[in-house]
Amino acid sequence: xxxxxxxxxxxxxxxxxxxxxxxxxxxxxxxxxxxxxxxxxxxxxxxxxxxxxxxxxxxxxxxxxxxxxxxxxxxxxxxxxxxxxxxxxxxxxxxxxxxxxxxxxxxxxxxxxxxxxxxxxxxxxxxxxxxxxxxxxxxxxxxxxxxxxxxxxxxxxxxxxxxxxxxxxxxxxxxxxxxxxxxxxxxxxxxxxxxxxxxxxxxxxxxxxxxxxxxxxxxxxxxxxxxxx
Length: 229
Prior knowledge:
Elements: E1 2-6, H1 10-22, E2 26-30, H2 33-42, E3 47-50, H3 59-69, E4 74-78, H4 83-91, E5 96-99, H5 104-121, E6 128-131, E7 134-137, E8 142-145, E9 148-150, H6 154-165, E10 170-172, H7 173-180, H8 189-203, E11 213-216, E12 220-223
Parallel strand pairs: 1-2, 1-3, 3-4, 4-5
Antiparallel strand pairs: 6-7, 7-8, 8-9, 10-12, 11-12
């Protein structure tokens, strides 16, 4: 598995190379956005770890450019922790976002989740999903939770399907609204909150402490699946 690290801090590049190579990954580390884009085009990696705050071509520009011609998974790893930066990076196509300082163990867990999702997306569309008592039949549009059939509204079903097909990925409010409701609803966060709350009451054992639909504060949501099934 080939990992491309794009970060202008030498100590971060060294730490990532050492930690990821111990984990069995092949790592190429470069110090700026231009070099990262060149390397990605000539030697396509399996995953990119990307810093945002770099001189010249910053991480936002790299992410935007990569998404013009590649679906490679991108994990942003940066000291910038504002909600605005997270939302911007995710809207530009990043798959996940980790703030420095970080643990290599957490990073590799996030990498595995992102790579699993990418592998699923490259397979034919799944006809069913089953995890922790939640079962979805995408062919018949039927949902069961703990063997009990749930009655979802069409939008609740569409929302749940979008979450499941993007499981373990942070999705921004705008991404969800644009995909499920349409671009004209991209700023209607109230509608999204209402539907998420209703969906939680139906699929979560404790809606106040959700297991599946995790809130990413002021950014969006993540449908959490610890083990793909």
